[in-house]
Amino acid sequence: MRTAWIIGWAAAAASLALSASAADLKILTAGAFKPVVAALAPDFERRTGHKLTIDNDTAGALLRRIVAGEAFDLVVLTPAAVDQLTASGKLVPGSSVRLARVAIGVAVKQGAPLPDIASVAAFQRALLGARAVATIDPAAGGSSGIYLWELFEKMGIAPQIKAKAVLVPGGLVAQRVVSGEADIALHQISEILAVPGAVLVGPIPAEIQNYTVYAGGVSASARDAPAAQAFLALLASAGGQAVMKEKGMQAP
């Protein structure tokens, strides 16, 4: 999805610096990508004079909000959702770019024993042995929650996990281990790393791992399309990729 439409960040910033007026841009982002957007926003605002409002939600909820007519300037969602929004005229054709992918990880409270998750069997034992397990509520449209509950069904442990599940409608699932509501939290690694007091045990086993890919696109009704384009270029730049790696993400 990376196209010539995405110009270099340095060139975009230089061009925007010449703009006579600053814009207020609304950035919609799936929750796991929010730490990246938040980390890059201050430099973008300083260089360009534009101001960013960052609004995060589950991927499914954001898609529903945009389809319902919510105004925005730039969105970061799954490639399938970006393609759907482009086809329906909500995004500028050719503006989308794949940015990163992130794995699902396991978190516990800082100071708690680290469970063995080195194999699928060990991971299953850790889940069954936990007092409570926190995930995103799949009904909320979170990518990791949808995948994990399908996985629990395939593993034959869905009834046992359901009986002690802490279903989070959105936000940072790992906060539930910090608060003591759950012993184990399962969420995308970038969101686990964003929670003080939570420890990333590691990714779930490779045989059952699921990566969520994120892509960005510019709204067809953006208030300042060049400014939105410039921030997307920053996300896709080498500097943006370095921040993504720091936040637990990988190249798409």
CATH superfamily of the largest domain: Periplasmic binding protein-like II
Strand percent estimate: 15-25%
The level of helicity is 25-40%
Instruction: Report on the biggest sheet.
Output: 5 strands, mixed
Structural class: alpha/beta
Morphology call: elongated
Rounded to the nearest angstrom, the distance between the terminal CA atoms is 10 Å
Tally the helices. 11
Rounded mean pLDDT score: 91
Give the SSE string.
HEHEHEHEEHEHHEHEHEEHH
CATH topology of the largest domain: D-Maltodextrin-Binding Protein, domain 2
CATH architecture of the largest domain, please? 3-Layer(aba) Sandwich
Number of strands: 10
Specify the CATH class of the largest domain.
Answer: Alpha Beta
Task: Give the SSE layout.
Blueprint: H1 9-17, E1 24-30, H2 34-48, E2 51-57, H3 59-67, E3 74-77, H4 79-87, E4 97-102, E5 104-109, H5 120-129, E6 133-136, H6 143-155, H7 158-162, E7 165-168, H8 175-178, E8 184-188, H9 189-192, E9 198-203, E10 212-218, H10 225-236, H11 238-246
Parallel strand pairs: 1-2, 1-3, 6-7, 6-8
Antiparallel strand pairs: 3-10, 4-10, 5-8, 5-9
Helix pairs in contact: 1-10, 2-10
Give a written overview of the molecule:
With 252 residues, the chain is of the alpha/beta class. It has 2 domains: 9-101 and 213-246, 3-Layer(aba) Sandwich (D-Maltodextrin-Binding Protein, domain 2), CATH 3.40.190.10; 104-208, 3-Layer(aba) Sandwich (D-Maltodextrin-Binding Protein, domain 2). It is 39% helix and 22% strand. It has helices at residues 9-17, 34-48, 59-67, 79-87, 120-129, 143-155, 158-162, 175-178, 189-192, 225-236, 238-246; strands at residues 24-30, 51-57, 74-77, 97-102, 104-109, 133-136, 165-168, 184-188, 198-203, 212-218. Strands 2-1-3-10-4 form a 5-stranded mixed sheet, with helices on both faces. Strands 7-6-8-5-9 form a 5-stranded mixed sheet. Helix 1 (9-17) packs antiparallel against helix 10 and helix 2 crosses helix 10. The longest helix has 15 residues, at 34-48. It starts with 8 loop residues before the first helix and ends in a 6-residue tail after the last helix.
